[in-house]
Amino acid sequence: MFSVDIRIKRWVIDAGILDLLYSHISNVIHEAGRTRGWRPGDLDAAMWNV
């Protein structure tokens, strides 16, 4: 599990996602990573390295 901070929320808002609840953002990030074959949390980590 990871925490959703303001940087991640900005990415989500820029992507056009309107539901900013922690549970929804977490699900979106994990599902996006899963569709690429990444472990949970890898997309979150990748977003920090951009």
Written description of the protein model:
With 50 residues, the protein is an all-alpha fold. The chain has one domain. The protein has 3 helices and no strands. The protein has helices at residues 6-14, 22-35, 42-48. The mean pLDDT is 85.
User: What count of helical segments does DSSP give?
Assistant: 3
Number of strands: 0
What proportion strand? under 5%
Low-confidence stretches: none
Number of domains: 1
- The radius of gyration over CA amounts to 10 Å
Shape: globular
Structural class estimated from helices and strands: mainly alpha
Helical residues, percent: 55-70%
- Please provide the ordered H/E string of secondary-structure elements: HHH
Global mean pLDDT: 85
Q: Biggest β-sheet, characterized?
A: none
Amino- and carboxy-terminal Cα gap: 20 Å
Looking at this protein, list some descriptive labels.
globular, 60% helix, 50 residues, 3 helices, mainly alpha
SSE layout and pairings?
Blueprint lengths: L5 H9 L7 H14 L6 H7 L2
Task: Please give a quick description of this structure.
This protein is mainly α. The protein is 60% helix and 0% strand. The chain has one domain (6-48).
